[in-house]
Write a structure and sequence with these properties.
mainly alpha; 401 residues
């Protein structure tokens, strides 16, 4: 599969793509509206950040106990039921009398259910396109995510500013229903990818198998930690610039779109493989000067440049798919998604705590420095692993002269 045209000629790809697009807009609109709603009620950067990304905190529970369902549920049924649940939960968040603790109960329940959704979705994408088309297909989804986030944050920001956060939440709930309709009407029934019933034991066995490989472990850590810490920076946009948070979120989405086009379509495979870690450094470094409180145009430019680095995830996902047995593809991608979102939730809580004690700008710089440091450590570990593999492959007797 060589072109975007080939992708959209593939049966079922278009409705699958439209469903994911509607769900992405719903997530961005709902997240921004909820963050503003909580910040207005509490004036707390921590609670605002956790309300936007707190559903990610319970993803680790789903990864530990529920993830075997990603390959053991019929994909169409699962991808229809999940957005309907999200629609009901998002509508509940718009209830006028809902207390802050009630908001967090709903947010955490959404995160627990969502932990299975990533594995089902990306496992099905791999099934629709096969492994040779996965990178191109995932790059299109990432580009779509960037565009839909721009649309979602722009629309959500306008609705929040002109009308109310609660109205934006109701619009998001309607979009979740639309996503479920695309799946139900556009996809065919498929059996589960793996036999047996979902269980905690099956989840643990698969997690242990995936984690037992050192190359896969390094890929997972690179997928989870550096970009998770940078999402901690993003979680502070509302408290850093309350009136311009939508602009910063849109710039971040624009940069992510550019990075996905660069990695998914422009760079040749040989060069692409070498840029995974440099792109992770790019993701963090532009946030370091936020300690100096740059003006909005400079902050927007820095956010856009940094978000190009999110293209690193495509490089790492391609390697993960190559390292994973076919029967565990959905589980492996679900573990990536759950771990990534969990780290994002942890980083949002950490960034919010630092901002509470110091300032949003100081917390953004701290998260960026931490991300760059972890990337450098992973680069060193990767080089040591390559040297060990080279020594194993070296013919006996070589180097003894």
């Amino acid at each position: 599969m060589r072109s975007y045209r080939d992708l959209f000629r593939t049966p079922e790809f278009t409705p699958f793509f439209l469903a994911a697009s509607a769900q992405t807009v719903a997530q961005t609109m709902g997240g921004l509206a909820l963050g503003v709603l909580v910040y207005r009620a509490t004036e707390s950067p921590l609670l605002s950040a956790v309300s936007m990304f707190g559903d990610s905190l319970v993803q680790v529970l789903g990864a530990m106990f529920l993830l075997s369902a990603a390959d053991r549920l019929p994909p169409r049924a699962a991808l229809t039921a999940l957005p309907l649940f999200f629609a009901a939960a998002t509508a509940a968040l718009a209830l006028p009398g809902l207390p802050v603790w009630g908001i967090f109960v709903v947010v955490l329940a959404k995160g627990l259910v969502q932990s299975v959704g990533g594995g089902v979705r990306w496992g099905l994408l791999n099934e629709i396109l096969s492994k040779d088309g996965y990178l191109l297909g995932r790059s299109v989804f990432n580009m779509m995510s960037g565009l839909m986030q721009i649309a979602g944050y722009a629309t959500g920001g306008a609705l929040v500013a002109l009308l109310s956060p609660r109205l934006s939440l109701l619009v998001a709930a309607a979009l979740y229903v639309l996503a479920a309709a695309f799946v139900r009407l556009g996809l065919t029934r498929r059996p589960p990818r793996a036999p047996g019933r979902p269980s905690v034991a099956a989840t643990w066995r698969a997690n242990a198998l995936l984690w037992s490989s050192p190359p896969r472990r390094q890929v997972y850590l690179a997928l989870w930690i550096p970009n998770g810490l940078v999402v901690g920076c993003e979680s502070l946009y509302v408290s850093y610039a309350p009136e311009s948070a939508g602009t910063l979120f849109a710039c971040a989405a624009l940069g992510m779109l550019a990075g996905d086009v660069l990695v998914g379509r422009v760079l040749p495979p040989r060069l692409r493989r070498r840029l995974g870690f440099p792109l992770l450094l790019l993701l963090a470094v532009p946030y370091v000067p936020f300690l100096l409180h740059p003006a909005l145009p400079l902050a927007a430019a820095a956010v856009t440049l940094a978000s190009v680095g999110f293209g690193a995830s495509l490089v790492q996902q391609e390697r993960l798919v190559a390292l994973t047995p076919d029967g565990l593809t959905g589980h492996a991608l679900g573990l990536h998604s759950a771990g990534m979102l969990t780290m994002q939730g942890v980083a949002a809580a950490l960034a919010g705590s630092v901002a509470q004690l110091a300032s949003p700008a100081a917390a953004m710089t701290a998260m960026a420095v931490g991300s760059a440091g972890v990337t450098l450590l992973l680069m060193g570990a990767g080089k040591r692993e390559e040297r060990r593999e080279g020594e194993v492959r070296r013919p006996a007797g070589e180097g003894t002269r």
